[in-house]
Amino acid sequence: MPNGHQLGFRTLDQELPPVRLPVEGTFPAWLAGTLLRTGPAKFEAGSHGYRHWFDGLAMLHRFGFADGVVTYANRFLDSPAYRAARDTGTIAYSEFATDPCRTLFKRVVTAFVPPASGNNANVSIVRSGDEFLALTETPLPVTFAPGTLDTLGVAQPAPGQLTTAHPHRAPGSGDLVSYATRFGPRTSYQVYAQDPSGRRRIIARLPVRLPAYMHSFAITERYLVLAEFPFVVIPVAIPLSGRPFITNYRWRPGRGTRFRVLDLSTGSSRGSYESESFFAFHHVNAYEHGNEIILDVCAYDDAGIIDALYLDRLRSTDAHLPESRLRRYRIHLDGGDVTREPLPGIALELPCIDYGRRNGKRYRYAYGVASTDAGFPDRITKADLQDSTSASWSEPGTYPGEPVFARAPGTEQEDSGVLLSVVLDAAGGTSFLLALDATDLSEIGRARVPHHIPFGFHGSYFPQLS
Known about the structure:
By secondary structure, the protein is mostly beta strands. The protein is built from 6 helices and 36 strands.
């Protein structure tokens, strides 16, 4: 495999205890906490290869910060899927686009009764009360110890067979809000909230005939918004087709996109609003403006990005990815219509904001990754949504991952802080943790990891977590 971006899709078997990393430049002394990330790191089981980037077996990564010192450790998530691959050399559990051989009877049973899950939580990290959770789109969150990266068990399952790895904090209460699709004779979206003690309440149950694949959703101070893209599935097709999960979904652009707006406190429907057909993995943010909701997404014209992320395509020397662009929709709650507003023509994916202060509220800055000439992402971009300008950081031969915003203490300036990104150095065959000044994307420092880190998805910075 060539040593370009393709290195990011090569298995990493090495697990390290906490080691001190060599630092170039400086990491600010106020950065005193932990960056936790999860992502795929093993792409085969014996002689059997996983098919899609989203299928790779999960590995946890921990970067610790104290007085300018950076430490690093990594461990595989000790999941049933990982143990089966390690011990038997087989793919024993269904993943996003890879499926073990099963009988028709077993496919039917596991579609409508929660199966024994592989718990391959390779998408994101959240904290719920005292628990740290690794998440994917299957319903069982995996608990782990943030200090040792030991896998501890599973937490309370989501109320359905498909969920999101991007729950939100309710801006008012701080409760963890999410949704799950419950497949069955009467398929529905189950919208729910969970307080820090683990108490859960169902906010709403929304019947749906053709459920959409929705990787994330939006939240404001009073509302939750589900964007139903026209990438839908006939529920009965999942157990009967014999195909991996995501291959049962179909692009139906004639349906358009429907925004379903719910009142967070009562669960009542504020309305359903029709818009053009498009697709997105990630919402950037949303907020209320009078009787309107402003909703920003990283939008694609269609769902072709899912096919573009199969590993055989990503590993090719001429891999080209559809480009997601920052797009804004204005939902007129009383008028019933949706308008698309022009934003700077900025390519952006894996977005982040000053989440702790701006989630669900008016904001100005968004950060993410972007690519040159539709290749693999090779730059970090900052978008100024007020001035319609952008800035970027890039370095030849390197491929940055999702930037994570760590805000500086003692200031209300929205972009005062540091961006942390795991960057693949293809030529060097390793990765490094990059720290950028979030105000102008100038480099502050980097900490070199002794091996490459395969491309992951999401992480979270936890201040004061040692």
